[in-house]
Specification:
Number of strands: 22
Shape: globular
Strand order of the largest sheet: 12-11-15-16-18-17
Distance between the termini: 41 Å
Radius of gyration: 26 Å
Low-confidence stretches: 407-421
Length: 488
């Protein structure tokens, strides 16, 4: 750990402690949270906030290291073996405790029990895991997929045949033009068994969660729906229209996809002597964003998929934390980890998904080809979001609209903004808009209007204060926000 890394402050995987707490539980929460997530480092001997190195006396440092090792080994279940090292910074000894991501999740504090003693990291803070998140960690630790879990009810063979026929017809509808009908084979019960969408005991078939979701039997999955809305402006303040789609999850994709197409601009271009219609956004990307959300969301996490269209962007939000092995950069490079294996196999057969890991790179590539701003992929802690940015269509002298053509004036302004250190993203602009209307807006109210987590709101307001666009007057409870005009 270098001095520069220390002065960078705490992060998602780094936490500082000036002293070793007498009660080990005070730092054991972070130990199990690191093991349940991407891993991390606990640094003892550095003061949080000031990043001042307090350190330990050299004659006691090894005794302290042994005490930490024993406390972790005795307090956590399953056992966690930390990597502990001593390091000298500015002539003072600090203790670096590294916790690697665990394979036997969930990890928890033994005397608190699995449901109360399991902790996770969210946006750089340690939190007690909610019940649904503990269930997800149990599945991760046993290498199981929630959609492949068996249900008690049974399914008759004629119902399975009807289910397979619906999948087959959907596969035909979405097949590439160069893929002949004869190349798509009908699936059978045996194929569903191999995907673990069905199980079979003594000749009796049982559905799994994935089968029920694909079949539209979502009574026990009230959050398995897509909420669509069109908002006026750039925040979730005034909506123009909204609709919720339920039923079979692959039919939900089509409904949400068509909803977006109905509410974005449709233009045209002259190609040779023909007039060719174009939507302002790449339609394959729209479908990909919605399909990814349905396929990879957590069906244990509370909340519905949200598809929101604003003046400047299309926003698709899916419930569930990212897998601990996946980062935004890895996703952009094409790395993927399938959360719902049975559903993913069915989506692949039905031509909803083309290839594993290709979704995010394809979204970026198609946005670039369309002349759009680079999409934004956001890890919101408990949710995951993709923003696809809109650009006004351009009309030529003949009144022909080409949504893909870039507006020269807009491009110039974008270029200037890129060279400006105070450039703001749409969420920052949205915060300022809301606070301009009501300077006493609370962080909770900002969460509701923006549709983001409290940690995201805190990050946005902190960033705006650092940029000199916002500052707080008065106390946290009775104060208000003051917006500072940008410098010329």
């Amino acid at each position: 750990m270098t001095a520069e890394e220390i002065f960078a402050g705490e992060s998602e995987n780094v936490e500082f402690k000036s002293e070793i707490p007498a009660k080990s539980e005070k730092y054991m929460k972070t130990v199990v949270a690191f093991a349940n997530g991407k891993g991390g480092k606990l640094i003892f001997g550095v003061e949080n906030g000031t990043w001042m190195v307090t350190g330990f006396a050299k004659e006691e440092v090894f005794q302290r290291m042994d005490a930490i090792t024993n406390a972790i080994f005795d307090s956590c279940e399953p056992k966690i073996t930390p990597n502990i090292a001593v390091q000298e910074i500015d002539g003072k000894a600090i203790i670096v405790v590294e916790i690697v991501p665990g394979m036997q999740r969930p990890y928890y504090i033994k005397n608190q029990g699995i449901m109360d003693g399991t902790y996770i990291r969210v946006a750089g803070t340690t939190r007690r895991a909610e019940r649904y998140r503990v269930q997800e960690l149990i599945l991760e630790g046993t290498n199981r997929s929630y959609d492949q879990l068996e249900r008690e009810q049974t399914v008759a063979e004629e119902e399975i045949t009807a289910f397979c026929e619906k999948m087959y017809q959907h596969a035909l509808e979405l097949a590439n033009p160069d893929r002949q009908e004869k190349q798509i084979q009908k699936v059978s019960a045996n194929q569903l068994l191999s995907w673990k969408l069905l199980t079979e005991h003594d000749g009796v078939y049982h559905p799994t969660n994935g089968y029920l979701l694909l079949n539209g039997d979502t009574t026990e999955f009230p959050d398995a729906a897509i909420q669509c809305a069109v908002f006026k402006g750039t925040v979730r303040d005034i909506f123009i229209t909204r609709k919720e789609f339920t039923g079979s999850i692959y039919e939900q994709i089509e409904d949400a996809y068509n909803f977006v197409l109905q509410h974005i601009d449709l233009g045209s271009r002259i190609e040779g002597i023909a007039r060719q219609d174009y939507y302002e956004l790449p339609v394959k990307t729209i479908r990909e964003m919605i399909s990814n959300a349905v396929c990879h969301r957590s069906y244990l996490s509370p909340g519905k998929i949200q598809v929101a269209l604003f003046d400047g962007r299309l926003e698709v939000t899916s419930p569930g934390m990212l897998d601990s092995e996946i980062t935004i950069e890895k996703m952009k490079s094409g790395l993927s980890k399938i959360r719902n294996r049975g559903i993913a196999a069915a989506f692949s057969y039905m031509n909803i998904i083309e290839a594993w890991g290709s979704g995010i790179p394809k979204i970026f590539r198609e946005a670039k080809e369309y002349g759009l701003r680079e999409p934004e992929v956001i890890d919101m802690g408990s949710d995951f979001r993709i923003n696809l940015y809109r650009k006004k269509a351009v009309t030529d002298q003949n009144g022909v609209i080409d949504p893909r053509k870039r507006d020269t004036e807009t491009d110039t302004n974008d270029t200037k903004a890129d060279t400006n250190d105070t450039k703001m993203d749409p969420n920052e602009e949205a915060v300022l808009t809301i606070l301009q209307r009501n300077p006493k807006t609370t962080q909770k109210e900002l969460c509701m209007k923006l549709g983001v987590s409290i940690s995201t709101v805190k990050r946005l307001t902190d960033t705006l204060q650092k940029k000199g666009r916002l500052y707080r007057e008065g106390s946290r409870r009775n104060g208000y926000w003051i917006i500072v005009a940008p410098k010329e």
